Amino acid sequence: MAVLKVYEVELSNKRLYEQYINEEKALKGFKNYLEERSLMNMNTGVTSFTFRDGLLPIFTENTETVLSFVDFEEALERKLIPPDNIDYSSQGPVVVFDGTKKTQGFDIRFAEVMDRTEANEYKNLFLEKILKI
């Protein structure tokens, strides 16, 4: 991180500085404040799955396995996935899960032959974040 431009600098005394820092919860210093470390301690990660073939695995409450593979546009039309969880990239549709423990990105070439660990991660997040189970 580097400060590229500063337009206005205001000098303050140490008491005002400490008061300002103490107002922010979970901040231990100005450097942490700049790096937004207080936000990093929360579940603010984002896990995304890019499906290059455009097919999204869909689960229901009663299934442990994939119910079906649906084209992302059809999934949006049928409201199988909320629009807030879909993003678009040049590689294909991206299913985004906010509030995860860490930030991860998975690049899936063919949804029907996902790696087991990727499939389990996607299933768990789908059930937790979309179906709210």
Radius of gyration: 21 Å
Strand order of the largest sheet: 4-5-1-6
N-to-C SSE string, H for helix and E for strand: HHHEEEHEEEH
Helix content: 25-40%
| Overall outline | elongated
Domains (count): 2
- Low-confidence runs: none
**Proportion of strand residues:** 15-25%
What's the pLDDT, averaged over the residues? Answer: 79
Category by helix and strand content: alpha+beta
Q: Total strand count, please?
A: 6
Q: Determine the number of helices (DSSP H or I, runs of at least 4 residues).
A: 5
Which terms would index this structure?
single chain; 133 residues; alpha+beta; 4-stranded mixed beta sheet; two-stranded antiparallel ribbon; elongated
What do these coordinates show?
The chain has 2 domains: 9-42, no CATH class; 45-130, no CATH class. Helices cover 31% and strands 25% of the residues. It contains 5 helices and 6 strands.
